[in-house]
Specification:
The structure holds three protein chains of three kinds. Chain B is mainly alpha-helical. Chain B is 76% helix and 2% strand. Classes of the chains: A mainly alpha, B mainly alpha, C mainly alpha. Chains A and B meet through β1, α5 and α6 of A and α15, α16, α17 and α19 of B.
């Protein structure tokens, strides 16, 4: 029995099966549900660890399943796939713990955790997809499984946010489908190949290929929140905090950005794409999104909305790194996939803590909260400084490489965009920190949680995750130069794409 | 096994079952379910035989064509029979919970007659036999539609009856012309003899029009929404899933064997009407406030997709036909599941107003899940049978540069998503006025869910099903080789 | 122009007249009658076309088809009449009113 061929499938099943079982659990079976959740998360961690070890020792993990004559469903554990899978798996474990704490006593938890697990199943499927059709399948599955999480609260507002979400994502999905099928009719294959497979299509199809690129990027850009396709993201903030954390750090936006990485590297090939002339417009679009997102963030008083616009801005760093089309910029963009994930999830965890424990939703209500919830705000501070790009937090590393890469590729204007963005980040994060640490707290908080947490500032399950992820964010930056850090890993991926013949 | 007359069994079993249920009403439910099961097993037996020995042809009474009645089964017939048996089983299980005792005793005989007619239709080898089975099917379907005796049901049934009789008469007229022109009613012989004469065109015009009316292709779809919406839920499922597919099957057979090779350009008309059906049906579905009407208009739209294959198959051959067959199969399962789910919602809340679906996702999770999964196939999202069909049709359209068709398909998918999620969105929210909920039996919920899961499962079974479809080469007779 | 052809034309005429009546009239009984007239038209065509020149005996196959068709028409008419009666009992008049608007 070829176990190696089953491992990728098992990784997908490790969250699918617990999810399906959880759907059937009665609401009161709290302990069973927690056990199933953690079991799924931990088994996924174990399996991913196994794959990491195996790939390091030259094992090959691939699952294939015939879908149509001539097209297969392919799950493959390559270095890039593993990067995203590890991020997803690790952050899922952390978010599960957080969600258990956050939704304590809320209704419909079985439904929530069921769809939560489906969402992660779709994400790892996206990560390990070995060809465009597998990617498409899990990408649409991601849309379908995140919708119930967005409308979870069942209010009219949630329902409308869900409709907006679907309108954007399904429209993007249709464009993506069109691009994929068109590409298939031109090239006869959809397998992800290093340096791309599109060059086999022939010269006469160049205009068609440009259109296909536009279609694919548009479809992916909806989830990656590229302007003007970003409209769904701020509205989706109506979902509970664990959903926002998952959507913004791990699943949806990263799937979109990851897809753009795949399209540029493994479908078109960076050199071919540059030759087609599509990378420059992509870079401009990404740069515009970066500035636009940061500008909109400045004017938000609602904390989650400010973080949402910050995400719109930050995810485009990844796209920018890819679009600049140089090895060093690639490293910057790819490593930001991991770094932004760690930092943003920290920020959302903290926002969730503030909302759940003290009823704080707006920045204007955050005066002096640093004294009431020091650990949460410390984690928030780490995340914020990382976003701004201050060393030694991980965000600095990504921005450094992006800047260096831009210079290396002769695109100096990017430095201005990066600098401007950092300034804007500072402009909308520093006032929050100032208010939280240095202002006087109000007489009473908007809605303090009845439960007395004793000496802790809030429940363990809510406190531990942001602390852990903020420590990881610092570690990723400080220890970036040791082997097996995200940076080291990304360098390996870039090398495969750029240096090996 | 070769000698087993599966065709005879498939027709006689439900016929006998129906008669016994009519004469001895008390055993209806049990006998009905047993018969459905036996039919499913027989279809499997026929399938086995087809795989081992190729196409099945049986001359009733030993007389043989052209004077006798032949039964003929190839891959296409087999799959239609299979989906009929599956949907029939699902609906049968559902109806045990749905109907009251008396209604159930009326339901089973008529449904078993309908099943016999459907099986006979899919096994028919000559055009007159097709007329007979078509009429039987129509009459049984009308009777089922009027089962509950409500005003709406009676009106819907009457309209349906008049439309179906008109269609059959037009078809019969075409049969008369074909027989006069070419001397036989056997499909195989007609295929060899038919040539491009005015009489053939007239025949095709009449038969085509009649069958298009029965299949509710735009613009002759007016009778479908009232009929399917006012019938009891299991009957709506049977109508949308199976009955409209039967007349479509006849049209397809005639096209593939007799009229398609004449190459008169009619396929462009089919394609155009199909595109308009998709747009009109989807837009109308979006406007509905009542769930069953929404689902009925969705059927009008989905039938449009099936007709898109006609222009596409002219140059790409089998791949477009495979896509269409797959869409037909998935739609049958998914639409049946949807109507059954709607029946559950109606039982639960006493109404089917979409905006007042009160937190159904929490209180009837299996039903909501069934509707969602069925919706996934209708929208053509992966993984589902609908996605496979959509992918193949898109591929065929783009390979030939039919941008219009590709665009309409994508727009149709988005519109379908709009009306499906319109319903799903409301299942999460609370209604303004709460109703006293009525319990829904597990058999009803599970029947809907299992059929919906079948539609999704079809997404992974493309390869084996395509190889089954190709038994008998139904699709390679038309122009280009596959 | 032999007589058989003339009968066939009459059959076509009946079919068309029946179709016209089906569309125009609103009373259900008239619609049912129209269907029957259309049916008779088709049967007439079948029988007329069964006459073969040069042979004494006409082709029996269309005759068989007509007999089958008559049986089907009888059952269909019976069903239609019962439905109509039930509709009259339920609504008071024998017309398919514009109920499309009602169910919206």
């Amino acid at each position: 029995m070829n176990w190696d061929a089953l491992i990728p499938l098992l990784v997908v099943l490790s969250s699918l099966l617990p999810g399906l079982i959880i759907f059937g659990l009665a609401e009161e079976r709290v302990r069973t549900r927690i056990v199933l959740n953690l079991l799924g998360a931990l088994s996924k961690v174990v399996l991913v660890g196994w794959m990491l070890w195996g790939v390091y020792h030259q094992h090959y993990y691939e699952t294939r399943l015939v879908l149509l004559p001539g097209l297969e469903l392919v799950l493959r554990a390559g270095p890039l796939a593993l990067l995203f899978v590890t991020l997803s798996t690790g952050l899922w474990l952390v978010t599960t713990i957080y969600a258990i704490g956050y939704l304590e006593g809320s209704p419909h938890r079985s439904r929530f955790f069921g769809f939560f697990s489906l969402c992660v199943t779709a994400t790892v499927g996206v990560a390990m997809a070995g060809n465009l059709i597998t990617f498409l399948l899990f990408y649409e599955l991601l849309t379908l499984s995140t919708y119930p999480l967005v409308v979870h609260r069942g209010t009219e507002e949630a329902r409308r946010a869900g409709q907006t979400y679907l309108a954007y994502t399904l429209f993007g999905g249709a464009l993506f489908l069109l691009g994929t099928v068109w590409l298939y009719t031109l090239t006869g294959t959809l397998e992800f190949t290093p340096r791309g497979f599109v060059s086999g299509a022939g010269e006469e199809h160049r205009p068609a290929l440009v259109m296909i690129f536009a279609l694919l990027i548009a479809g992916l850009g909806v989830k990656a929140a590229l302007v003007p396709l970003h409209g769904w993201l701020p509205q989706a903030m109506v979902a509970p905090a664990p959903v926002s954390a998952l959507l913004h750090a791990v699943a949806v936006v990263k799937a979109g950005a990851f897809g753009i990485v795949r399209v540029v590297y493994d479908v078109f090939g960076v050199e071919y794409a540059t030759g087609l002339g599509v990378t420059d417009p992509l870079a401009w679009l990404a740069a515009f999104t970066i500035i636009y997102g940061s500008l909109r963030a400045l004017f938000q008083d609602d904390l989650k909305r400010r973080l949402a616009f910050s995400t719109i801005s930050q995810v485009s760093y990844i796209v920018l790194g890819v679009a600049i089309a140089g090895p060093i910029a690639t490293i910057g963009g790819l490593v930001h996939l991991v770094h932004q994930g760690l930092m943003k999830i920290t920020l959302f965890f903290c926002a969730g803590n503030l909302a759940e424990t003290l009823g704080i939703h707006k920045i204007s209500e955050m005066n002096g909260v640093g004294r009431r919830m020091p650990w949460t705000m410390a984690a928030f501070t780490v995340g914020a400084f990382g976003m701004i790009g201050a060393p030694p937090i991980a965000g600095f590393i990504s921005k450094w490489y992006l800047g260096m890469g831009a210079l290396d590729a002769g695109q100096g204007w990017v430095i201005i965009v990066l600098a401007g963005s950092s300034l804007l980040n500072a402009a909308y994060f520093l006032p929050i920190l100032h208010a939280a640490w240095f202002r006087e707290p109000p007489q009473s908080w908007p809605h303090e949680h009845e439960h007395n947490f004793g000496r802790k500032e809030t429940a363990w399950a809510l406190l531990l995750p942001p602390v852990v992820t903020s420590v990881l964010a610092v570690a990723a930056g400080l220890l970036a130069l040791i082997p097996f850090s995200p940076l080291d890993w990304v360098k390996l991926i870039a090398q495969r794409e750029f240096y090996q013949p | 096994m070769t000698g087993t007359p599966w065709g005879i069994i498939l027709i006689m079993l439900p016929l006998a079952g129906g008669m016994i249920c009519f004469l001895w009403p008390r055993v209806s439910t049990v006998l009905g379910l047993l018969t459905s099961l036996a039919v499913a097993v027989s279809v499997a037996g026929l399938g086995w035989q087809l795989q081992e020995y190729g196409v099945y042809r049986h001359a009733i009474g030993g007389w043989g064509a052209p004077l006798g009645i032949d039964l003929y089964a190839d891959g296409l017939s087999l799959l239609m029979l299979a989906v009929t048996a599956l949907v029939g089983l699902g609906v049968g299980i559902y109806s045990t919970g749905y109907f009251s005792c008396e209604d159930s005793q009326r339901f089973w005989p008529i449904w078993l007659f309908l099943l016999a007619a459907l099986n006979a239709l899919f096994l028919a080898a000559d055009i007159f036999n097709l007329y007979v089975t078509l009429e039987l099917m129509g009459l049984a379907a009308v009777a089922l539609t009027s089962l509950t005796g409500s005003k709406d049901a009676l009106r819907g049934a009457m309209r349906y009856l008049l439309a179906t009789l008109l269609g059959s008469l037009a078809y019969l007229f075409g049969v008369a012309l074909l027989y006069h022109g070419f001397g036989t009613v056997d499909i195989g012989m007609l295929a060899e003899r038919v040539e491009s004469y005015p009489i053939a065109w007239a025949a095709f015009g009449l038969m085509g029009a009649g069958l298009m009316l029965k299949t509710a292709l735009f613009p002759m779809h007016f009778w479908l929404p009232p009929a399917h919406a006012s019938a009891p839920a299991p009957v709506s499922a049977l109508l949308s899933a199976l009955v409209v597919k039967a007349s479509f099957y006849i049209l397809l057979r005639l096209w593939l064997t007799i009229f398609g090779p004449l190459n008169e350009g009619i396929e462009l008309l089919f394609g155009l009407l199909g595109m308009m059906a998709i747009l009109w049906g989807s837009l109308q579905a979006l406007r509905q406030t009542r769930l069953k009407l929404l689902i009925a208009y969705s059927t009008v739209a989905q039938i449009g997709y099936l007709f898109l294959a006609f222009p596409l198959a002219m140059t790409t051959g089998a791949s477009a036909w495979h896509a269409m067959a797959y869409l037909a199969l998935s739609h049958a399962l998914a639409k049946a599941a949807m109507f059954l789910a709607a029946g559950n919602l109606l039982r639960f809340g006493g109404h089917d107003r979409i905006a007042d679906l009160d937190r159904v996702v929490q209180r009837l999770p299996l039903t909501a899940g069934a509707f969602a999964l069925a919706g996934v196939s209708i929208m053509g999202l992966p993984p589902s049978g609908g996605f496979i069909g959509k992918w193949l049709l898109l591929e065929a359209a783009l390979a030939q540069g039919h941008w219009g068709i590709a665009a309409i398909m994508l727009v149709g998918g988005l519109l379908a998503a709009a009306y499906i999620f319109k319903v799903l969105g409301h299942t999460f929210t609370q209604a303004d006025i709460s109703h006293e909920p009525v319990a829904v039996p597990a058999s009803m919920e599970w029947a809907a869910l299992l059929l919906a899961m079948g539609a999704v499962l079809l997404g992974f079974l493309a390869s084996p099903i395509f190889s089954l479809l190709d038994i008998g080469n139904a699709f390679s007779l038309n122009g280009v080789s596959p | 122009m032999n007589s058989a052809f003339l009968y066939a034309l009459v059959g076509v005429g009946l079919f068309s007249l029946g179709l016209y009546a089906l569309i125009i009239h609103t009373h259900l009984l008239r619609k049912i009658l129209a269907i029957n007239v259309m049916g008779s038209g088709v049967f007439l065509v079948l029988i007329a076309l069964a006459k073969r020149t040069g042979l004494a005996v006409p082709d029996p196959v269309p005759h068989a088809m007509v007999i089958t068709g008559i049986v089907v028409a009888v059952s269909a008419t019976a069903l239609a009449l019962v439905l109509m009666l039930k509709l009259v009992a339920a609504t008071g008049h024998a017309e398919l009113s514009d109920d499309q608007r009602e169910s919206q």
